[in-house]
Write a structure and sequence with these properties.
Bound molecules: flavin-adenine dinucleotide
Number of strands: 20
Number of domains: 3
Radius of gyration: 20 Å
Strand content: 25-35%
CATH architecture of the largest domain: 3-Layer(aba) Sandwich
Shape: globular
Length: 397
């Protein structure tokens, strides 16, 4: 997906998405963001806000302006009574762990890597694994947002409640999030364990495995009989340093949960009602064996707790997420489109930051608050300043 203007070359983490925006502007202050938003609104070009550009879906490419929020970083405040912490939106997830530990706190959960920004993580419903653990969006308790008209609004479940619900997962299309308050918990240590197990056995035991520990996931590589399983659980044992390899760590949560993902790839991920997870994996496996035997990248299986976030793929249902991957040098389209049909046949909803091919009608069928979300968005940004071409295609009503 390419959007060619005449400015500097921009690309996302995988390099598969590129653009030539008018400019990429590093912003660290409200004034800088406000002047960019007002200039774009009055000048008629698009502004997209970027965290660390880890998304595979073309949320960011534009011939307008990309606001790079990495300078908008740092812990703003903690509240020990409410057990919340407020970060500037550009703060990377890996920069949250140590400052929170200094206050005796930890994030509720994290995903596979910790390189993304908090603003980017909440805008797409980024999640880790754990049947009782929701996405970053579901942990948000308050947001401070700079709107296209230049005003700053603070919202939570009581104040500007509808805006809050819409902006907890915003696709970067409601305003520029300045600060995010997240529910946190007491600091905690985790121990991980990794083992091989035949895929059939893992699927037979999936409920037992996912409920036995705080975090469970597995990877399965095409052509293999066995899956690589990982469970991570709370421990009172002291941290073991040096950390050791993935699969053997015992340390603070923020030292055990994230991993390295160094090989550039693309990814499609669908959230499936938990009860259909195993059957869906069987079909994806058959698809790989029958039609795409040369795909060498794994599928990943995780769990997410239900939530009530308007556009959350885990909205109101116990969820498993199934991710498929492909190398950036190969064309993933045929594989992903075939897999998407299978995911959809199980009621799957796509990850907002990963590849999918759904249109507005299909998405609106998944989310009863879809039109409400667009109404709020359109009211706050009537000029469509925050919409790139791909988001305009999803515009409703
Ligand atoms: C290697 C890799 C591993 C990943 N692992 C996981 C995982 O374990 N779990 C998971 O769920 N996802 C995962 N993802 C997906 C990733 O977490 C999401 O795509 C996430 O949105 C990326 O965050 P970012 O900071 O890079 O945001 P970007 O990709 O830069 O932006 C994503 C969205 O956030 C918006 N945005 C960013 N900052 C702001 C702001 N301040 N105000 C308003 N809008 C904003 C953007 O406009 C855009 O719509 C992974 C991706 C990669 C490449």
């Amino acid at each position: 997906m390419t959007d060619h203007g005449k400015g500097p070359a921009w690309s996302n983490w995988s390099g598969k998405l590129s653009a030539r925006p008018k400019s990429v502007v590093q912003v660290g202050s409200v004034e800088a963001i406000r002047s960019e938003l007002l200039a774009a609104r009055d000048g008629g070009w698009t502004v997209r806000t970027s965290g660390t550009a880890h998304s595979h879906y073309p949320l960011l490419p534009t011939s307008g302006v990309i606001l790079d929020t990495r300078p908008l970083a740092g812990l703003v405040a903690v509240d020990n009574d409410a057990m919340t912490a407020t970060f500037r939106a550009g703060t990377k997830i890996h920069a949250c762990g140590r400052p929170l530990l200094d206050h005796g706190m930890g994030l509720l959960n994290q995903g596979d890597i910790d390189q993304q920004s908090i603003g980017g993580a909440i805008a797409t419903g980024t999640h880790g694994t754990g049947v009782e653990l929701g996405s970053f969006s579901s942990a948000v308790t308050q947001l401070s947002i700079l709107l296209v008209d230049g005003s700053v609004v603070t919202c939570d479940q009581e104040t500007e409640a509808d805006l809050f619900e819409a902006a907890r997962l915003s696709l970067g299309a409601i305003g520029v999030v300045l600060e995010v308050t997240l529910r946190v918990r007491e600091a905690y240590r985790l121990e991980e364990r990794q083992w091989f197990e035949p895929l059939e056995s893992v699927m037979d035991r999936i409920e037992e495995l996912t409920s036995a520990t705080r975090h469970f996931e597995y990877f399965w590589w095409p052509g293999q009989d066995r899956a690589v399983c990982k469970s991570i659980d709370l421990t009172d044992e002291p941290c073991r340093y040096p950390l050791g390899d993935e699969g053997q760590r015992l340390a603070w949560s923020f030292e055990v949960l994230p991993n390295q993902r160094v090989n550039p790839h693309t990814e499609m991920e669908y959230s499936i009602p938990a009860e259909h997870g195993p059957a869906c994996v069987v079909e994806i496996r058959e698809l790989l064996e029958r039609k795409f035997p040369d795909v060498a990248w794994p599928i990943e299986y995780r769990t997410v707790a239900p939530d009530d976030v308007w556009l959350s793929p885990a909205r109101k249902r116990p969820t498993v997420t199934i991710s498929i991957h492909e190398d950036v040098v190969r064309d993933e389209t045929a594989y992903y489109q075939s897999a998407e049909k299978i995911f959809r046949s199980y009621g799957g909803r796509p990850h907002w930051g990963k590849v999918h091919y759904l249109n507005a009608d299909e998405l609106s069928g998944e989310y009863e608050r879809w039109v409400d979300w667009w109404n709020i968005r359109n009211e706050l940004d009537p000029t469509g300043t925050l919409l790139n071409e791909d988001l305009k295609k999803l515009r409703s009503p």
